Amino acid sequence: MASTMISLASASPSSSQPIRDNSKPILPKLKIGGFSVAHKPKSCSRITMAVAVDVSRFEHVKMAPPDPILGVSEAFRADTDEMKLNLGVGAYRTEELQPYVLQVVKKAENLMLERGDNKEYLPIEGLAAFNKVTAELLFGADNPVIKEGRVATVQGLSGTGSLRLAGALIERYFSGAKVLISSPTWGNHKNIFNDSNVPWGEYRYYDPKTVGLDFDGMISDLKVAADGSFILLHGCAHNPTGIDPTPEQWEKIADVIQEKNHIPFFDVAYQGFASGSLDEDASSVRMFVARGMEVLVAQSYSKNLGLYSERIGAMNVVCSSPDAATRVKSQLKRIARPMYSNPPIHGARIVANVVGDPVLFNEWKEEMELMAGRIKTVRQKLFDSLSTKDKSGKDWSFILKQIGMFSFTGLNKAQSDNMTDKWHVYMTKDGRISLAGLNLAKCEYLADAIIDSFHNIS
Ligand code: PGU
């Protein structure tokens, strides 16, 4: 804490308020009621008291609330119960509930060591080899938009940083345009657009009655939105609900977006994690692009390559002409430069090495299928355990219909609190559990916790 001298001057009425004046000479101090008060001789016409108080210049800074997702991991770490289970953050764990570094990642890193790759600054737009393969992975290598040079791709600080770049681009060039996000969505979307000063609204997505997609609600909300809005869509494995539109529904969504001149803005954080197939999980994005639409796509390698803290992802803007793509890219670089100058190289090289090498690429696909497969196995086991143990007749089959890392249990906040307080199961308060943090051994325990919370807490 800093000690601040406050001078109290009483000579003129206009200076009767306490003033901060660091230029005054330090005066002899008297102790009054715990404060040190500086004393000045009587002959002086101005009476000045300098009060030294222990006061921080950050006194007005309020405590921020814990993050609804990453804060759950902090609480988990502090819990000493041996049955504790962290189903909060969407991070893949092994059957032993340990973090997993993919074998292909280790191989790519060894390659980097063998080659003696340096650590020079990357260009503002990132590693060229990464930008090339990431766009190819997303759109398909032989997609005309790539061949025609119509995609502006810049490396971003994973999915979040890439979304934030797009937020800044929208704020600068589409002043007043709204971003419409699904209700519910990944919590950080709202923070990203708030901090980008981009207005946002919501479209209906989840129907608690059917525990499924509120397709009609979604379509009518897209129809009434102002023309030319940005529509944020989860490319696959919708977070938190695990409910994706069917291919037919995607087509209808694209119809409305085209009719309304909206701009589709995809967040692809789980390519390969929903179905186990990279191509299948990119099919929604590719369908919009095939219609000739201009599309924004944020990509993340946190989950599918397990590169969480390497912060590697990309922002892609598909434009109707190569010229527009060049200009958009130049502006994305301009936004990135004062924010973080240029992105980190390590994760970019890993992705470039894995995706750019046919042998490693195939090994990656196998490992991804393994990860996606383990999640599907615990999903099935959780459903079986719930169905066997719960005698109430409740239909738990929605768990099997959801895809990706998460299950949206339908538990409310009080029930979710019970999961944590009584059962030491850490999860987000919207009722989402990450099945990637669950193993077969703990499915029965989790089922007991869910049944107790669902039936005994209102
Ligand atoms: N978009 C969606 C839909 C996500 O679920 C996530 C991660 C991201 C983007 C951003 O991930 P990056 O690591 O920045 O690439 N959501 C996880 C991870 C924890 C978090 O909230 O950042 C989750 O548990 O929801």
From TrEMBL:
It is an enzyme of class 2 (transferase). Pfam families: Aminotran_1_2. It catalyses: L-aspartate + 2-oxoglutarate = oxaloacetate + L-glutamate. Its EC number is 2.6.1.1. Its cofactor is pyridoxal 5'-phosphate. Residues 83-450 form the Aminotransferase class I/classII large domain. InterPro entries: Aminotransferase_I/II_large (IPR004839), Asp_trans (IPR000796), PyrdxlP-dep_Trfase (IPR015424), PyrdxlP-dep_Trfase_major (IPR015421), PyrdxlP-dep_Trfase_small (IPR015422). Keywords: Aminotransferase, Pyridoxal phosphate, Transferase. One of its GO terms (biological process) is amino acid metabolic process. PANTHER family: ASPARTATE AMINOTRANSFERASE, ASPARTATE AMINOTRANSFERASE, CYTOPLASMIC. Belongs to the class-I pyridoxal-phosphate-dependent aminotransferase family. This is aspartate transaminase.
